Queue: 2 jobs
Job 1
Amino acid sequence: MRLNKILKNTLLVLTACLVLSACATKKEVATDIQGQMQGDVYTGTDTVEYLADGVPDRVFFATNESILTTASRETLRAQAAWLRKNPNINVVLEGHADERGTREYNLALGERRANAAKDYLMTYGISSDRITVLSYGKERPVDSGSNPLAWSKNRRSVTVKAN
Amino acid sequence: MLKKIFILLFILIPINANALIEVDITRGNLNPLPLAVSPLSIDEKSRKDFEKILKKENIGSEISNIVENNLRTSGLFNPLDKKAFLQAPDIANLKPRFEDWNLIKAQALITGKVNYIDDKLRVEFRLWDVLAAKEMMALAFTTVPNNWRRVGHIISDKVYERLTGEKGYFDTRIIYVSEEGPKTQRIKKLAIMDQDGANNKFLTLGNELVLTPRFNPASQMVTYLSYFKNMPRVYLLDIETGTQQVVGDFPGMTFAPRFSPDGKKIIMSFAKDGKSDIYTMDLENRIVEKITNHPSIDTSPSYSPDGKFITFNSDRSGYQQIYVMKNDGSNVKRISFGNGLYGTPVWSPRGDLIAFTKLHKGKFYIGVMRTDGSGERLLTENYYQEAPSWSPNGRVLIFYRETKTNSKGEGFSAKLWSIDLTGYNERQIKTPTDASDPSWSSLLSN
């Protein structure tokens, strides 16, 4: 029993050391995050899936924003081109928010984000009949972390094939 | 159902109108009133009868434990250790020896007895002022044995009301969302329990995502958001019969529902084309009215207790802030002007305050302000917490709090907490699973 306790304490000390060393390399971590974020918009590809070759399924947003970035527009133009080539496919645009907001506001924000993507697809010739908007607010994060990088992956609109 | 089962309540002796002991509940109570809850006395025959029916060895002690626990968690009372009691329960109920109770520093004393009569549970109880050596109150109830927990809650409410001058909140229930599973694939069910965490029951199976249940203040109906068939819509649920129905026929997501104070309308948001507006639907004639019309997000509406005003959350200024308007949507006024973002405004049942969630510099606060936005007071700060709901007497707020996950995304939990309006007496309410989105019912018996 006693030994157990001692072991546990050692573990605790070890964990503490690990945490401290993580702090020491913070600079490195920060650049890593910078590599995957611009402002606080996610620019990495960790969670991205593809509707077809060269057609990413999702776009990312800044905190509290629903404005499409240059990269997001490029993604959506690729989606629109693919949808024009596949006129029988309908899509659901799933809008999401990160966990740092109240539940009800985030539901509305998710809808607003998915809708921004919908509007852009429509300006590139995709009929609104083929698009359904569905907000999940903060209910379905892809990354369960509580840190800025995780939150940036979760602020997204994902285009999902409906049929 | 619950209301109908109850009961014959009569006053044994007229209540003495002069308040003897008084407890001030308007400020943080750092010196809770010491009081003794003597176990309800029970004769051997009744004890055995109840043991057979309720599987409780001594129902008198069980009921007094409920009273004791309620009074303790209110933070206003300090129930004394029963081991120090000198007088036996049966004798104490007849005529307390006040010197004995004074000796252990009890200022108030609760005594009583339980009987099994005609298949019913009969309870009488008395509240005594020890210093003045006087009876303050005496009441008796008769009910079906299965209602024994509620008897404990009603006694607690009566004692609370007699000593504080305000209605209690113990004979109430909490509806909430039970949560299980990993954060990315959370399974959520509607659940209901007594205010003290007993009688927990799940109302949905977890097949679809459910959020934000809220009680009808006038009945045992609940409104909530369900993703049934992957379409987020506001539903109505009768918790006695289990029948459910969708509210209105909107071409898109409806969410953030609440009842009007008379229970006849539902107020909610409808999201379309990137904007969310507030609507009401009359539950009798199904007439839908649009209350706000703005390109912003307008959500989380909550009526004033007289039904004349609505407070809501809008980002029309650029960020989430709290607004108040007349119930027809006119006279919109922003009331939150402090630093940070404000959400989830809820009008107090007393009418004088609005509770809210505030986000500032990466911290979440539960706070209250007057209905004109003045007198902002933050009650509690944490990594994440939101969605306050008022106790029916407007003295306590229940909300939920989530923990931060570590770098691997582990360590997440969501729990219900309550705190007094004074900012004191913060407590976790135990639930069998993780929990969020609590809503407090009105008093079941009035």
Job 2
Amino acid sequence: MKLLKKGAEADIYITTWNAQNSILKIRKKKDYRIHSLDTRIRTLRTIKEAKMLSEAKSIGVATPLVYFVDEKKCEIYLQFIKGKLVRDLPIKQIIRTCKEIGKIVGVLHKNSIMHGDLTTSNFILSQKGLVILDFGLSQKTDKIDDHAIDLRLFKEVLNSAHAQIVDNAWMQFIDGYQKILGKNVTDKVVNQVLVIEKRGRYANVV
Amino acid sequence: MLSLGIESTAHTFSCAVIEKRGKHGKILSDIRKIYRPPEGEGIHPREASRHHAENSPQVLSECLQKANVKINDLDIVSYAAGPGLGPCLRIGAVVARSLSSYYDIPIYPVNHALGHIELGKMLTGAKDPLVLLVSGGHTMILAFLSKKWRVFGETLDITLGQLLDQIGRYAGFASPCGPKIEELASKSKEYLPLPYVVKGNDVSFSGLLSATKRVIPKGIESACFSLQETAFSMIGEATERALSFTGKKELLVVGGVAANKRLSDILSSICKRHDCKFFVSPKEYAGDCGSQISWVGLLESSKKLGTKLEDTFVKQSWRLDTVEVLY
């Protein structure tokens, strides 16, 4: 078992599951959180993640296969996906990939799934295409506001981590999103993104 | 180079003189007068601005006296131009403009949030940190990238400082309520379940505010304890996510809430896990003060000329991520 990454939420290891390469995601105990709160968060997110990964797969979105879940230990064994995180791709390729990301998010929203953590480090570009990860914060919801939260987060990530390409990348993303959900719904959600931004601190409203 | 900085965004009116030699700054004086609303009430902008207007001459002269400089010695004057409460901002701006026009000193409008960050960097020696800005006006996670401070996460509604203040006021404490809540929280270990809302790198406190109000009848101490634990864990998680995403090796915490011991314990334990250096703005300079404004004025003056008097506006909603940083 080899440590691949110490993430914010979980530690990611490479290991094997039934003789197959596998990713082991462990949501370790966080000492800074009150025990009951910590257990509640880790257990719920582990279960949620396993469920949603499978559900997303069932509607045709590429996600890693779930091999095994241990909700007591907050562990998930997942299919190992070979590829590169979108965050680490060359700039031009990120712009292109944003359209695909938009399509994937469109399909999720169309099927009432809000991802909850749409960042460029939660997509892997593999040989077989784009794979989406990390459903720990996902929710089943049809609310436009929730879907807009997803888009706003992605926009925030582009704005901060990929500031040089934000305009282009965002346009591509919306383009992909619109291909799945149509202009009407897309306009509504994008509009709601603006509403959420105005709710924020010191937004340009005064 | 000598700079006078004037801060008047909210409850604090403060003047400070900083001397800059090369890249180093030395705070010669930092005088503050803080407006205290009656217990159970928040800042009334008109009353606060009256307080600032009445106290400004005394604060200014005390500040110059302590620094042992005359107005004519000053190379620049800077003032906090936003974000903040309009009536309060205008007091600081008027003082700065008067000095600038009468004594012919270059004037620099400064973003208040930038002041928190830059002074924090100067005092702690952090080089390229992820910044957590937690105060009454801000709850933001930021990193510097191509000329601007970029927001990696922030509150979607009220700030951490507002959350603590509103609960405190509801319970009848005097503002700012953070220290009182911290004291009460330290007397309890009983955790009452409260909503924990992290959305990606962002947090939302409005639901937590209403829920905490509802549990106050079960005991103010356990309510404060549970509020702190929940809110700080949320901030902790959002910060951890941003650290992991950006891969930064330094974390700097600035703003009034940075003075909270429990919050800095949580953050330092997160830094340990991510092999990251942890810096907190010294308590004395964590809250609003003139030094923050004075220092940014000095940094800006190294790259640009003073602003024309007719362009020295105040901007109540001046987001940090729109400020271009040239130095």
